[in-house]
Specification:
Length: 317
Amino acid sequence: MGAAPFEDGLRAVTWQAVVAAATLTVLTTVCSAWRWRVVARALGVDIGLPGAVGAYYRSLFLNSVLPGGVLGDVHRAVTHGRRAGDVARGVRAVAWERLWGQVIQAIVTAVVLLTLPSPVRPVLPYVLAGVVCVAGCAALVARGADRRGRSRLTRAIRALAVDLGGQEAPPRAGTRGRRRGLLAAGVWPRLTLASVLVVAGHTATFVIAARVAGCTAPLGELIALLMVVQTAVAIPLSIGGWGPREGAAAWAFAAAGLGAANGVKAAILYAVLMLAAVSPGAGLLVRDAVRRRRGPGRPGEPTGTDPAPRPMAAARG
């Protein structure tokens, strides 16, 4: 296709589209931070919502500019874990938060593709059957490992079961004492609601990018195509999402008869809009670097991911 679709995607950027994308990103970031906070509290490593929003903006920006698309989440997990006094639990909180979001996105995508016309609809039942088979095999392996003894895999499986089911835990610095579990009645509905809102916000942003890029396909068909493209973004073999997203957009739009070049143009425009929308994360990272160069802040001054770190957590950090 040459460089023309990329150039057209860059030229199509308008300030109205940037403002719309930034507004939707604020909403999706708040929902994502809320989801993270719910998971963290369920695992016993609490975090305030303002601090979670700031940390999420940092991670979104890093994910948008670094290879793999997950290094920002690693930074967020380790930073929060250190400030909470439990790095392992902080890492698990972020991992569960991202996994829950990906699972809900996959479910929403499957429902949309089964409902709306799309080029992948005829093969979707076979894909879902394959996913069910893989999940069943994984469950059998996990059950067998749990019966055999205390291997590393067994310990990991039991830790996951505790995170899902919850248990009583003694109070400690930076924790709430009681661990509820992610499948508790007051936890999983909030996680699901937040994840659905995040998927809806990202899809709406992609629809704006496609319309600005000149795509005139019916809204239902367009949403189905964009859900497929968003699934490809989750593949950790990219640089800030670049690569699989454009390839999936080219294939999906071509399969729908809309032209591969138009798919690449829409994907490029979406990437630029999202990079502009998460740019506040770059400002927060610069502010953190300046504070580190100046030394510790004044007593009570918020730093990092927590709006007001506890004395014990701050000392450990």
